[in-house]
Amino acid sequence: MMLLGPDGAWVVVPSSRVAAGGSGDLAVTRDGAQTIIRGALTASHELTAAGYAGLLACGMIGAFVATDGAAASAPASSSRWEARHILAVLRSRSVTPDRGSHVLDVCAGQGRLSLHLLEAGYLLDAIDLSEEALDRLRHEAAGRGLSTRLSTFVTDAANFARPDHYAFAYCAANSLRCLGSRSRVQRHLRMVHRSLTAGGGYLVHVGLSTRPGSATWYGADGRRVDWTVEEIDTRTAETIERVRVTGADSAAAAHDLRVRVLLHGADLAAMAEAAGFTIGALWEEDFTRVAEYELKTAAGNMWVLLEK
Ligand SMILES: C[S@@+](CC[C@H](N)C(=O)[O-])C[C@H]1O[C@@H](n2cnc3c(N)ncnc32)[C@H](O)[C@@H]1O
């Protein structure tokens, strides 16, 4: 579940443990006990300061930041959390900038996470179908003096490979599902496997199941996002999703109908193994470690580390 924090940044909490009550309360379940955080949400589902503090106290947010040695009360920024997680996984594998290791950001977009990796000193290749997004990334990197470590490629992730080039790759924000079909995800995994050096890792953030349904959330600028899964074709494993963004003035800002591929944990595990990977580790969206064997039954958004 994503909630808007009091500082305007998104906060990601595990939907399996945090539930919203009717009157702005949040119910948090941990170790079999339930805690109610009163007045945690505003009417538009944004976190109040009390809600934020309550989630911190329950260890639902900031847990990763805390175990990483930094202050648990650091402002919650979903991008920074994700980047810290990715950097911690890199370090745990001894992939450090001083070794000249190359890292691949798959479906990098405007480089929400690439910029953190560049700032940490890594040599980074960012790939995306969108030339405009990569232009923005290059522009931002240039402004921060990071251009010399960045290469960008406008390309389809299902067809991109640089054999034996990367010590590590990652794909955030559930972007694998953008590839459109299971056969293209399979092909992509083969390409990444071929692109990694021996012992390399591929960290993937992926939503492992989707049911027809809908959700609404609000952005920091007052924009409202209505998201609906209209249809799932069980034969092709495609979902038809509709996204409607309405501005603060109620004018439609964007309207998008898209097809994404549905992935279950068991499919992902089978595809990864067919591509030559082993499953290295598994985390929930809040970076809580989960046993690897649970991938086959897991649901919701997870981080999966695939190892060559
Ligand atoms: C949800 S965004 C994620 C952006 C970024 N990784 C982040 O975490 O903010 C998905 C990105 O995938 C890109 N994309 C979609 N299909 C792709 C494909 N077949 N090959 C490469 N990029 C693709 C889109 O252009 C978009 O920038």
Automatic annotation (TrEMBL):
<dbReference type="InterPro" id="IPR041698">
    <property type="entry name" value="Methyltransf_25"/>
</dbReference>
<dbReference type="Pfam" id="PF13649">
    <property type="entry name" value="Methyltransf_25"/>
</dbReference>
<dbReference type="GO" id="GO:0008168">
    <property type="term" value="F:methyltransferase activity"/>
</dbReference>
<feature type="domain" description="Methyltransferase">
    <location>
        <begin position="103"/>
        <end position="200"/>
    </location>
</feature>
<keyword id="KW-0808">Transferase</keyword>
<protein>
    <submittedName>
        <fullName>SAM-dependent methyltransferase</fullName>
    </submittedName>
</protein>
<dbReference type="InterPro" id="IPR029063">
    <property type="entry name" value="SAM-dependent_MTases_sf"/>
</dbReference>
<dbReference type="GO" id="GO:0032259">
    <property type="term" value="P:methylation"/>
</dbReference>
<keyword id="KW-0489">Methyltransferase</keyword>
